[in-house]
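Hello Y.,

Per our agreement to keep a running log of every chain we model this quarter, I'm adding this entry. I've kept the format consistent with earlier entries: sequence first, then predicted structure.
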Amino acid sequence: MANTIQRIDQFSQWPHRLALLAALATVPLLFIGGLVTSTGSGLAVPDWPTTFGENMFLYPWSKMIGGIFYEHSHRLFGSLVGFLTILLAASLWFGESRQWLRWLGIVALGAVITQGILGGLRVVLLQQTLAIVHACFAQAFFALLVSLVLFTSTEWQETVTKKSTADAGQVQRLAVLTTALIYIQLILGAILRHAGEWAMLHIAGAILVAVYVVLLAARVLRNHADLSALARSAILLRRLLVCQLVLGVGTYLGKFTEVGMFLNPYEVCFATCHVVIGALMFVTCVTLTLRTYRLVERQRFARQPQLFSKQASI
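Predicted structure for the entry above:
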């Protein structure tokens, strides 16, 4: 017990705090980004990095009305997340002993810079493709931040004894596959939202993701309920799936059917929350996958002794 406390005391909490703060700030950033797309405000501010020729940070609040409010708020929140990521990368570089984690902080810094440039070029070049890439890259960046939250936590500092189990490889592969399917589904969703294409493929993808999430959660809760971290992730993933399906049905009815005239006041909220819950599903599955590799390993069977030995020749 004393050794554990000593390890925690020696470990600086600032990288974890900054990673957590950056990840939490990314959630409203994704929500506002979803509002920008849902309300068609992507080009409400026609220039970048300035805002109507003025310094982005000095643009008066009184002029932030209509679509300008959504677009400019998205830029300000993006700047906040970028600033927090700079602090995170610096705290990891100067205060983290694990070299791979220090470089991962630099990767996060490069990713947030790239994301900002993609968002700006989408405005300047008026390219719909850049909007899709910007949306997909945002999901990957969010997953990276959440991974850094996990890697810098005390949970990841403590020595663990892996659970030996026969299905370790199966649950790990299932987790990786489910994570990949969710990300592909997010890409299909970005294409549908920005280009209005592949609606049926997106629906088919939702069904496939739902099946794999149910299978993954069932396997974890059936065989590894004793691992509380895994069980919590599986339960959260399953609950997020239910919310996502409800929001998906509401978004589809509001956008593609005649019912939309009755749901019109709520369709923007449905669509935007659908984006955010999808992102939370993705990072939850990423977290679950990382924990499967940390907490379980394939059971090693000892070589069985031979039942019969050759009789000596007479």
